[in-house]
Design brief:
Length: 93
């Protein structure tokens, strides 16, 4: 019988390295916060895309949580376009 592996998060389960897991986690959190802003504003995908400086299909990818399609850089740019500043905090692992 095979021993089941245990992971601290889904990101650690799908990433090859702790660094990749941290990157995925950060991207997912930024995407979640951007989606919350769009939801609070009541924008359609077209309106949100216009405010963020991206296309509607790109906004659809973001709102559907397609993490692999966004870099941290792109998400920081979208956050800035919405009038938000991204802050980075470090904590011991």
């Amino acid at each position: 019988m095979r021993k089941l592996e245990s992971y601290a998060s889904v990101w650690e389960a799908i990433a090859d390295t702790p660094g990749q897991a941290a990157n995925l986690r950060a991207r997912a959190e930024l995407m979640r916060q951007i989606a919350a802003i769009v939801n609070r504003k009541g924008w359609t995908q077209v309106e949100a895309a216009d405010h963020c400086g991206v296309t509607q299909p790109r906004m659809n990818d973001l709102l559907r949580g397609r993490v692999s399609r966004f870099s941290l850089d792109a998400l920081v740019n979208i956050s800035t376009a919405l009038g938000y500043r991204v802050r980075v905090d470090l904590e011991a692992a």
